[in-house]
Amino acid sequence: MMTNGDTVWITGASSGIGEALALEFASRGTPLILSARREDELARVKNLCVERGTEANAVMILPLDVTNETALPDIVQTAKAFTGRIDMLINNAGISQRALCIDTDMATYRRLFEVDVFGQIALTKAVLPIMLEQESGHLAVTASVAGKVGAPQRTGYCAAKHAMMGFFDALRAEVAHRGIKVTTITPGFIRTAISQNALKGDGSRFGQTDNNIAGGMDVGDCARVIMRGFDKGTPEIPVGKGAEMHALWIKRFFPRLMFKVASRIGQAEQ
Known about the structure:
Elements: E1 8-11, H1 16-26, E2 32-35, H2 39-52, E3 59-61, H3 72-83, E4 88-91, H4 106-134, E5 137-142, H5 155-175, E6 180-187, H6 211-214, H7 219-232, E7 236-239, H8 246-253, H9 255-269
Parallel strand pairs: 1-2, 1-4, 2-3, 4-5, 5-6, 6-7
Organism: Eilatimonas milleporae
GO molecular function: oxidoreductase activity
Protein name: Short-subunit dehydrogenase
């Protein structure tokens, strides 16, 4: 269980689930490091965190582009210097996709993997030695139901999130005996800007809100479910309220049925 004095670093903290988690931690007075590319939005989130209860001098704004791997060592040392520790890293930065495979450029696939996979791995590897030296720490990643189930028009996104589930499951097995916890978060449809910011096949911004996102779980409710999972030490936290959450057990126990359902959805969307 996290204590109020633990330092939590959240990437993708400028909006969506990252912002909502920052506010939940702030209500506990937790020291926070907030990272994303948009410094102005991070400043907005910091102000909200201070309103929630964390002291202003206990919230650090640390702009970060996870794809800039050469900058990560210095950024990680800056993060550590804030309180002398990094007790939890929540890898929440990411982008989605809305395009058929046949219409998706390889450059777009590579962009998805640079942000959603290699950026998360590189930052985790840079922080891991600090946690090993501390002999404690908590690493988390925002994956997705799409990291368990294939969905149409999201081939690159599903591939990236499947990769993250595999990487962090394997990492958990490596570091559990070293006092480090690893959590994978599997959200379904949450009311965020994820589809607005998704990539079309040519790499441009999708710019629309999916109906299933619009009807999804409130992002604040999502964050509270995740926090309860953190407190309980749950290794994998599913969070959502819609039919997509049933896909997790259907895929596990009735895979052929899940493939048929996904195919019908894919046909309907074309």
